[in-house]
Design brief:
By secondary structure, the protein is an alpha+beta fold. It has 5 helices and 3 strands; from the N terminus they run ααβββααα. It is globular, with a radius of gyration of 15 Å.
Amino acid sequence: MLSSKLAKKAVTSSMPISLNPQMMRQIIMDHYEHPRNKRDPKDERYRKIRMDSVSCIDDIFVFMLYENGRVKDCCFDGVACTISTASTSIMTELVIGKTIEEAQYIIDQYLHMIHEEPYDATVLDEAIVFMNTAKQAARIKCATIGWNGLESLLEEEKEHHHDPK
């Protein structure tokens, strides 16, 4: 994990954080070879969504369990390329234990970073390794597929718990 001091530097500095490309590759490969939270929970309490891509091998399910006002668990399963697997693995670690609003904020900041917009790096931790994704337009879908899936699940959860008056 990146230290919060390193992440804070990215948001407070006028220049983007300079990560060694080799270090970035190592983090991505670690999450690809040893993905965190890659499993099918086979539990009906989980919301799930299938996400696939016509431009890559990506065909995954994203699962989320929301209880007591927090994302109790988030996981994924299926076939995905290195970028999709690593980014989704990192995402699951970042959102477990968060409220819907906190998880949405993390997703928003990640997507801002991917699209080269101003973002808060302090909440991205290892996801910061995807900061140069916009330079490879074909990889944007890969880097965001799991994040977009989770965003849809969070929206479903908000609608489910909305109390119309």
